[in-house]
Specification:
Keywords: Endonuclease, Hydrolase, Nuclease. This protein is α/β, with parallel strands linked by helices. 34% of the residues lie in helices and 19% in strands. The termini are far apart. Bound molecules: zinc ion.
Length: 418
Amino acid sequence: NSLESNPAFEIFQSKKLEYGQRLRFSESPSIEFKQFSTKHVQEYMKNIIPEYISAFANTQGGYLFIGVDDESIILGCPKDNVDRDSLKTVTNEAISKLPVFHFCSSKDKDKVSYETRVIDVFQGGNLYGYLCVIKVEPFCCAVFSEAPISWMVDKKKGVYRLNTEEWVHMMVDVGPVSPDHLKYTPKFLWKELCSQHKRLKDLVKQQIRSFSCGLLILSRSWAVDLNLEEKQEVICDALLIAQNSPPILYTILGEQDEQGQDYCTRTAFTLKQKLVNTGGYTGRVCVMTKVLCLSSQNNNKTSGGSVSPIDYPSSYNLANIQEMQDLLQALVIVLLNFRSFLSDQLGCEILNLLTAQQYEILSKSLRKTRELFVHGLPGSGKTIIAMKIMEKIRNTFHCETDRILYICENQPLRDFIQ
Ligand SMILES: [Zn+2]
């Protein structure tokens, strides 16, 4: 530990020191001296602690001395100005307020690690005052001296100050997965599904309660998303991408259905193929399946036979956030890629991805949304949307291609669509 090989460590461990003694080291990037001869020591400490403690924690760690002047002379805080205990209390309070943000998945180091020593300073054999030393360990991620000074306006809240987490999320692309958090997405769909099906929330929560970090990606039909036929009895499919687990595809049915497992397995298999073939995913990948049923009381019991029969080795688990994000990246390509007119014209494959807005249009439930009016400039992707919607109509309503009428104004476009 470099903090213990630091010359300041010896002083940090002292029981008593002499007033006026000169330390054998001076200030450095890991040592800072402060001296307050005022009665308002505590006020001054509250002001400097956030700055120095966060600076040390964000770098290599270090020692903050309160009671040493710039010439390395121990002067202490006179005991008439401050009492022993309050030095510790002020320090603890100030440090506990420092906002931290983790980019890593470390759970054990939630706050800044530090240790405070209050050392007696004697003058001519009598207690004169105290030297307060704070030893700060380096922090794994980011420590702030205060919440960022950044504001937003909201209809309900009015003008409000962002907290550290909100601010970091706005400033940095931390990716869709954050540590210690299992997110349901898209949120609107989850809300809609929960309001339509009373038991859904509890059923899903029960299944995923042992996972603490990841994403649960909901869809009315993962099959349709993958260009397979819809199964009408399916309420929704949920794909779990979680740490320390392989991806799991849950198919949620209203009533028990013998074909449910087949549907889920086929969807999972296609997903796995596309992740590799289309998405270019290079890691080990398997997609486990599980069929859940809203009407049955105990899904763990009844669906015992419907869990994937193969137990994959743990090397198929998504080990960390990086692996989860790599898989998600492949998934984005699987879901958003499309064959373009341009690729055909040039005779070579071009990777095209739908925009988030285009995908949102496509995610609308076809059963509920019977009319869509999409307008845009030439080349903005209206034809692509139309094609994707036709694919979806075919899969959702199980109809033959020749039962879909497509009307357009130019011949090459018609030929391309055909
Ligand atoms: Zn961290």
